[in-house]
Write a structure and sequence with these properties.
Blueprint lengths: L15 H4 L15 E7 L5 H14 L3 E7 L2 H14 L5 E4 L4 H6 L7 H6 L16 E2 L2 E2 L2 E2 L1 E2 L2 E6 H6 L6 H4 L8 H9 L2 E2 L15 E7 L11 H6 L19 H15 L7 H7 L1 H6 L3 E7 L3 H7 L4 E4 L10 E3 L3 E4 L6 H11 L2 H10 L3 E2 L2 H13 L5 H8 L4 E3 L6 H16 L5 H14 L2
Parallel strand pairs: 1-2, 1-3, 10-11, 13-16
Antiparallel strand pairs: 3-14, 4-5, 6-14, 7-15, 8-11, 8-12, 9-10
């Protein structure tokens, strides 16, 4: 495994645009008119790559100017909701699977399927089922732009001090009964103020100076945490996309949460939920407060930019049934309030094209939705000194991912499950009681 130290960081923007092939000319319906298309995204790391796409697109389409607006995650969705109410919103915006069902149900997203059919845009060129996730009942609300998986991020110095070889991540296992290799490793990497680790009978869990793991258990989807462990037992949120019945009271999920929460509440090996909530797992990692975190591929550059010690990315632990994690993917959607639908469609179509995805790939910020561009992203990260194979291997592994649980009533689900999972993480409710109630409340929505 290649370790990354924040000693040098090369700026990869220069030359990336020149290396990508120019797009075919895309003419808008009113080619003689000059049109501004406003485009919103939330990830500042991705803005340079998409500005390069915009520059290339406008060069081929001089009548269409792309203006990019970037806002942080929370502000972004507030702006989306406010803009839809006020009638002043970007023509095109990056969309999320947890958000688009509600927006589509309120007729806020353009159904692009007629345009896909008219322009004969292929939808079978993307990784896995990414394209299918954005379709429902014959309508389509976006074209894929990228995908993400999860890996473990480790502090190489802490592993060395504990006598742990990073190769352990190639073979480690987990189970909901006793935690398996995961629990043993987390305990070994946890140190109290006297230097005793979590395996020592004299370990003092009330005076921990270094946690083995920081993992937020209070997240409603558990994308970077509990969901990958529960799924490794064979459990799934629901039986199919757009399902109407969640399986939140399944014994496998209850057992998973019981085991994971015990590492924090009973053992003291995992960072307390209140610290995770206030400090965030990634910040605890870069501050040297924890040896391990699980995080998504969208954070690769963040760790590179903010970590001052040697670190690396490793494979996930294998559970009773599989080594697996959530597979998520974003898409670009068109707001129904746009006054320039044809031009907005031209931009969306271009962003989902091999040309644009190759540009994004060369920046090494995300894994693009088209497989060939993934290799460009991997190569770009390698030039930055980062080995990201664990993320790509997980996506390419047979049955190595499960789909984000796409369904109606996402905002209500989020509210119910956030309360339930936080009550478990804080020790206020047992997993069985909290999840049984949450399952009833969520399924009543349907």
């Amino acid at each position: 495994m290649v370790l990354k130290s924040r000693m040098t960081r090369r700026t990869f923007a220069a030359g990336a645009l020149a290396a990508a092939a120019a797009p075919a000319v895309i003419k808008s319906a009113n080619a003689a008119d000059s049109v501004e298309i406003k485009y919103m995204l939330w990830d500042s790391n991705q803005q340079p790559a998409y500005q390069a796409c915009a520059d290339t697109f406008t060069k081929a389409n001089p009548n269409i100017k792309i203006t990019i607006q970037q806002l942080g995650w929370d502000d972004y969705w507030t702006a989306i909701q406010t803009g839809m109410v006020s009638g002043d919103l970007a023509d095109v915006f990056t969309n999320h699977l947890a958000k688009y069902p509600e927006l589509a149900s309120k007729s806020q997203l353009v159904d692009i399927q007629p345009m896909v059919d008219h322009d004969k845009v292929p939808t079978n060129i993307y990784t896995g089922q990414l394209a299918d996730l954005w379709s429902r009942d014959g309508k389509r609300y976006g074209l894929p732009k990228d995908w993400d998986t999860i890996s473990v991020v480790y502090n190489a110095d802490m592993l060395t001090a504990a006598g742990v070889d990073p190769k352990v991540f190639d073979e480690w296992k987990w189970n909901p009964k006793d935690g398996g290799d995961l629990a043993q490793l987390v305990a070994k990497l946890t140190l109290d103020e006297s230097g005793k680790n979590g395996l020592d009978p004299a370990f003092n869990k009330s005076k921990v100076k270094q946690y083995g793991l920081a993992m937020g258990l209070g997240d409603p989807y558990g994308q970077t945490g509990w969901s990958l462990f529960a799924a490794s037992t064979g459990w799934r949120f629901m039986d199919k996309p757009w399902g109407t019945k969640y399986n939140l009271d399944d014994q496998r999920l209850i057992d998973t949460m019981t085991q994971l929460s015990s590492m924090s509440l009973e053992k003291g090996w995992m960072a307390p939920e209140d610290q995770v909530t206030s400090l965030k797992t990634e910040s605890m990692f870069t501050a040297g407060k924890t040896a391990l975190v699980f995080h998504g591929s969208w954070m690769i550059n963040w760790f590179g930019d903010n970590t001052k010690f040697k670190f690396g990315f490793g494979r996930l632990p294998t559970g009773p049934e599989a080594r697996i994690c959530m597979f998520n993917g974003l898409a670009d959607s068109i707001w129904t309030g746009t006054k320039h639908k044809d031009e907005a469609w031209a931009w969306v179509k271009y962003l989902a094209s091999p040309e644009a995805q190759d540009i994004v790939g060369t920046y090494g910020v995300v894994f693009p939705a088209i497989p060939a561009a993934d290799q460009k992203a991997k190569a770009a990260w390698a030039k930055k000194g980062e080995d990201v194979a664990s993320y790509l291997d997980q996506a390419q592994q047979k049955d190595g991912t499960f789909l984000f649980p796409i369904a109606d009533h996402a905002s209500e689900y989020t509210s119910i499950m956030t309360a339930a999972m936080q009550s478990i993480a804080l020790g206020k409710s047992s997993p069985k009681d909290a999840l049984t109630k949450a399952n009833k409340d969520v399924n009543k929505l349907f």
